[in-house]
Amino acid sequence: MTNSPAQFIEKSKQWLTQDVYPLWNQKGIDKEKGGFVESITFTGEPMDVPRRAMVQSRQIYSFLTGYKLGCCPKEIAYAAIEQGTRYMVERFSLPSGAFIYSINPDGTPKSRNPDLYTQAFALFGLAQAYSIAPNEEIKNRAKALVKYLQRERKVKGGGYTELDEKGGVSYKSNPHMHLFESAVAWMQVDQDQEWKDLGHELITLATTKFIDPQTQVLGEYFDESWNHLRENGKFIYEPGHQYEWAWLMSLYQDLTGQDLKATRHQLFLLAEKYGTSPTRKVVFDEMWSDYTPKTQSSRFWPQCERIKAAVRLGTEVSSEQKALYAKGADEAMGTLFKFFETPMKGMWFDMLSETDTFNANSAKASSLYHIVNAMEEYINFRLKI
Fold it and tell me: Is Protease there in the keyword field (predicted)?
């Protein structure tokens, strides 16, 4: 039996309110040492594993969004945000202004690598914290991070380097997408020109370098001049990121007035046409630029990005086109709920295999950011299509 949009909205609110936030407040926050735990087993126990800065940032966002949706009490959400922000800044900061990748549960550094993906999320988390407590300390910490990137990580043709554990340098669109997301988040809560400049730099890089003019899809991996890295003439792209960029471009257009409508909808429609399976109703993880699947597994998060893009972009198309966007949102919502059929309520599987089976024994805290973001957008926009 398929759910109506109104039923999906009610199911989402109920699941978040009754199952997710009670569990993740009780088990997902380290009440002794501080910070958010990395994952919880399907028997409900926090796992004693290293903690990433990215998870601290994402959980700050998740608790804030839960409060905005009325699914998490204000005092619980604000307490989680306040302690998570303090933990992230105190435990993960480097003198350079960067944030390290991970620490051990006892608070000692695990990986000191200041990878770009981590910097993007640290900046994002600080914007969320600033939105409810706009103090100079948080803003100055965010500005120190941007100054570090511009001082030490700048690429000649625009953008920033990615670093691996051994100091190897690579050039990827994905961390830039999240850096763009953090610029947008700051633009939503603060008028400082620095965030606008960062956003402009990153949207320019996306539209002029990341999107291939021939295929119109947005690639993942590049050389130092932002040329697509190819294998037998083809490069890799991810439908989930197509949706995510389309959604972020919508937020950016609302803030700046820059007309990105054609680009946004093109990314969405290409992902819908080639990046989904009409029979299995899933978004594929990876594609080749000739529009053929590279992998036919499906992680949970591309389904979330499909929901976000479909409902927000669906509000601005003609009445004849609305059905396509509505179908994409509802189909992805139906698929997403399959990921929640875990042994304990309030948790999720990470990946659906190409044979449509799940195999896991724990839920990652990092996933909640994608899920609540998708549910928030569906709740706010689905009935407007």
Answer: no
Distance CA 23, CA 252 (A): 34
Is the entire prediction scored with pTM above 0.85? yes
pLDDT digits (tens, 9 = 90+) for 120-130: 999 999 999 99
Please tell me the number of Cα atoms within 13 Å of 159 on its side-chain side.
28
CA within 13 Å, CB half, 187: 21
Place of tokens 């966002």: 61
CA–CA gap between residue 336 and residue 324 (Å, rounded): 18
DSSP assignment letter at 382: G
- Spatial neighbors of 362 by CB under 8 A, at least 6 apart, are 39, 40, 41, 42, 47
The CATH architecture to which 5-384 belongs is: Alpha/alpha barrel (1.50)
C-beta separation of 371 from 58 below 8 A: no
Of 186, 211, 212, 216, residue with least CA distance to 199 = 186
